[in-house]
Amino acid sequence: MLFLPLLCELITEVQKSSLQACLLDYVKSEVVYSVECPRCSQGTGKRVKRTFMKQLQLGRAPECLCIHLKRTVWLSNGSLCKDNTKVSFPARLDISTVMKVQGRKATVYELGAVIEHVGGPLSGHYITYRRQDRRHWA
What we know:
The protein has one helix and ten strands, in the order E-H-E-E-E-E-E-E-E-E-E. By secondary structure, the chain is mainly beta. A hairpin with a 5-residue loop joins strand 5 and strand 6. Helices cover 6% and strands 36% of the residues. The strands form five sheets. Strands 1-4 form a two-stranded parallel sheet. Strands 2-3 form a two-stranded antiparallel sheet. The chain is flat and about 65 Å long.
């Protein structure tokens, strides 16, 4: 299962309201500063702090892809926030842009089901929609 963060303070941008945008945001590279590197002794035997780039990429495409949008976060004041922003998702999702090695295996998925949570961050109900055929959902 792939857990995509969809955090309250980030969702103000229009581009974050699509599943593809959430996926690309999840795997974007980021700089990590002042990481102690025990292998970088530079001849002195002392540990040196380095700056690195890190990025998440998928090594292989699973047969069945489950994506969970993480819509809750603990705020600095101790309260729990749930973001109810609507996120558009395609009937077909291509994840080739987040693969480590592209072209190994089919990376296009057809949407088969959606589970929706209705309620607040601490309570509510789940509603499931599943595809019966290409045109009908139940």
